[in-house]
Structures are given as structure tokens and as C-alpha cells.
């Protein structure tokens, strides 16, 4: 059979081979590969047939070297167990693949500046951009990675840097209006009693005022943390929502925990609403009134902002409201 090492290696088809078979220039083949709009449909079809026939695969490493790019995007996320964050990361990975890019995912375990610096040293030189999906906190301004970085957060809106975020105030107003349209009910806000509480309460008060509600029309319930367990504990406590109330939760996790607790305690006729929930939560909880944004739209906005036009600084994807079919 001979020595396999001595056999001639089969050469990988090149872009010029594809061009020769399709009867076009190699630059036309490149335009087809990069989905350039100037290519005529019949020419595109001919080139794609030649690519399939030859089994041609672009040399991404060579393309990146010529363009001065790495073809890689770094995604950081604080908690992949939260549905809306996991859904956003999945949409980003899918959109990266659609654009011929690779995605590297890193989870952040703490809030120290040292962790951000370690992350930057490890990945920044090998990334075309960094996308922080609802980070534990906004990366320090002193951290210079040399590549553009964008923060994606469906609720909070950092004041500096590249940001993709829905308008939290507009979401609160739409939720409050949707709940009031269902009939006269006492409204309550459930928020974490931490650094974001004042912002959540301010949006809630402004939403009530715009809806024409008198002073004192709403109340605030503070949870000890932004989590499912905290929402469930609230439903069992002395300040738990009562029948005939509507409750706006500042996060998806608080809403899901509150719903579970209300069901376990047998509390009836409470309308629960939440800001910025995932599609899977909407499918699992048909009774939840919520605002939501398509994760694919968020992913496209983030990649465009960080890779295409970082001078724009801010993108606000549109959101929608889904009204729950029934109260708990």
C-alpha cells in the first residue's frame, strides 16, 4: 500500500479555481461569499454551484489577516441561569455565525475591577469587539481594551459608552397603562431594595402620573434581592399582594418567584406584570403581562454598534407588550 506520508496531498480548491469553473473573476466570487448586493442573481447562482461542486471553503484566517480583524467577538454575561440573559446570548451566538464570526463566552463571577482587567488581558487582543450582556456592573472607564465594547441591558441604561437598551421608562408606562385598562385595581411595584430601587420607583411614579392616577394610587414592595426566591418569599410575607391587586415586577425573576408563591399560598385574582421578559417565559406563563423585545433584534443592534458603526453610541430596539390571559 506504500507509505501514506509519501502520497501527494490533495490540494484544497482556491478562490481562483472556483472563479475559473464559474467563468467569473475571483473578485466576483469574493463578493458572493461576502453577500455583496451588487452581484446579479444568475451570477450568484453560478458561483454557488461552483462552490458546492468543488467543496470550497473560505480561508477565514487568511481573510481576517488581510482585513486586520480576528473574526471573533467576546461575549460576557453575569448569569446564564436567567432566561432573558441566556436568550440574548444565544441570539448573539446565532447572529455571529450568520455573519461568519466566532463567539467566545465568558461568565463574570464577581464585581471587582481586577476581574475586568484579567478578562481584557485574556481576550481583547484576539477580539474584534466585546459585548457585555447585562453585566454585574458597567465596566470601569479606566479599562482600555483597544477594541469597541457595548453593554446590552434590557432594563437599565448605562449613561456612558456603547449601549443597547430598551427605554425602561417607556416600558413601565406601557405596563401600567395595560393594567389600568383592565379595570380599577390598586397598583403595586415590586423591586429589589438595592441600588436600582430609586430608579424603578421613579419610573413607577412617573407612569402613574402620566396615567392620571392620584397621589397615593400605588404602593411599593421591596424584595431583599433581585431573584426568584425573593419573589416567592414576598408572596408568603405580611405585605404579600392581595386579591384585586395588580403588581408590576421590576425583573423577570421577581415576577416568576411571585407567581409561584401566590399559587402555593392559594392567592387568587392578582394580576402580575414584569419588565423585559424572555420569549420562553411568555410561552410558559400565559397569564403574565409583560414587555419583551425580540432577542434577535437586540443581537443585530449590538453587533452593528460594536463592529459596524461605533460612533452612533446608542441603540434602542423596539419592545412590545403581551397582555396576560388571566390573573393568578
Mind summarizing the main beta sheet?
6 strands, parallel
Shape: elongated
What's the helix-strand series?
A: HHHHEHEHEEEHEHEHEHEHEHEE
Give the number of helices: 12
Distance between the termini: 75 Å
Q: Structural class of the helix and strand makeup? A: alpha/beta
Rg for CA atoms: 25 Å
- The helix content is 40-55%
Beta-strand level of the residues, as a percent range? Answer: 15-25%
Low-confidence stretches: 4-9, 61-67
Question: What's the count of strands?
Answer: 12
The strand order across the widest sheet is 2-1-3-4-5-11
What is the arithmetic mean of pLDDT?
Answer: 82
Task: Explain how this protein is built.
The chain has 328 residues and is an alpha/beta fold. The protein has twelve helices and twelve strands. The protein has helices at residues 15-22, 26-33, 41-54, 60-67, 83-98, 113-123, 168-181, 197-210, 228-236, 252-265, 279-284, 295-308; strands spanning 72-77, 102-107, 129-133, 149-152, 162-164, 186-192, 218-223, 245-249, 271-274, 289-292, 314-315, 320-322. The strands form two sheets. A six-stranded parallel β-sheet has the order 2-1-3-4-5-11, covered by helices on one side. Strands 7-6-8-9-10-12 form a six-stranded mixed β-sheet, with helices on both faces. α1 crosses α3, α5 (83-98) crosses α12 and α9 (228-236) runs parallel beside α10 (252-265). The protein is elongated and about 75 Å long. Residues 4-9 and 61-67 have low confidence and may be disordered.
Amino acid at each position: 500500500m506504500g507509505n501514506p506520508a509519501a502520497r501527494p496531498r490533495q490540494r484544497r480548491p482556491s478562490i481562483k479555481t472556483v472563479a475559473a469553473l464559474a467563468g467569473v473573476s475571483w473578485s466576483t466570487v469574493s463578493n458572493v461569499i461576502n453577500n455583496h448586493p451588487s452581484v446579479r442573481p444568475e451570477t450568484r447562482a453560478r458561483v454557488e454551484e461552483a462552490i458546492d461542486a468543488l467543496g470550497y471553503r473560505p480561508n477565514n484566517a487568511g481573510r481576517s489577516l488581510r482585513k486586520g480583524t480576528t473574526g471573533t467577538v467576546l461575549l460576557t454575561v453575569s448569569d446564564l441561569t436567567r432566561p432573558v440573559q441566556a436568550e440574548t446570548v444565544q441570539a448573539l451566538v446565532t447572529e455571529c455565525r450568520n455573519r461568519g464570526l466566532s463567539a467566545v463566552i465568558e461568565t463574570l463571577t464577581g464585581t471587582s475591577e481586577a476581574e475586568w482587567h484579567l478578562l481584557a488581558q485574556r481576550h481583547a487582543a484576539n477580539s474584534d469587539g466585546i459585548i457585555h450582556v447585562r453585566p454585574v456592573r458597567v465596566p470601569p472607564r479606566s479599562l482600555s481594551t483597544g477594541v469597541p465594547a457595548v453593554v446590552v441591558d434590557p432594563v437599565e441604561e448605562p449613561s456612558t459608552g456603547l449601549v443597547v437598551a430598551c427605554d425602561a421608562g417607556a416600558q413601565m408606562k406601557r405596563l401600567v397603562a395595560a393594567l389600568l385598562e383592565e379595570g380599577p385595581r390598586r397598583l403595586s411595584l415590586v423591586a429589589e431594595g438595592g441600588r436600582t430601587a430609586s430608579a424603578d420607583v421613579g419610573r413607577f411614579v412617573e407612569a402613574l402620573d402620566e396615567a392620571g392616577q392620584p397621589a397615593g394610587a400605588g404602593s411599593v414592595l421591596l424584595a431583599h434581592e433581585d431573584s426568584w426566591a425573593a419573589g416567592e418569599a414576598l408572596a408568603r410575607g405580611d405585605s404579600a399582594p392581595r386579591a384585586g391587586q395588580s403588581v408590576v415586577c421590576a425583573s423577570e425573576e421577581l415576577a416568576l418567584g411571585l407567581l409561584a408563591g401566590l399559587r402555593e399560598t392559594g392567592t387568587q385574582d392578582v394580576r402580575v406584570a414584569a419588565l423585559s421578559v424572555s420569549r420562553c417565559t411568555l410561552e410558559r406563563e400565559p397569564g403574565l403581562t409583560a414587555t419583551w423585545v425580540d432577542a434577535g433584534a437586540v443581537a443585530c443592534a449590538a453587533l452593528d454598534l460594536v463592529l459596524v458603526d461605533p460612533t452612533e453610541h446608542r441603540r434602542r430596539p423596539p419592545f412590545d407588550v403581551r397582555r396576560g390571559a388571566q390573573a393568578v
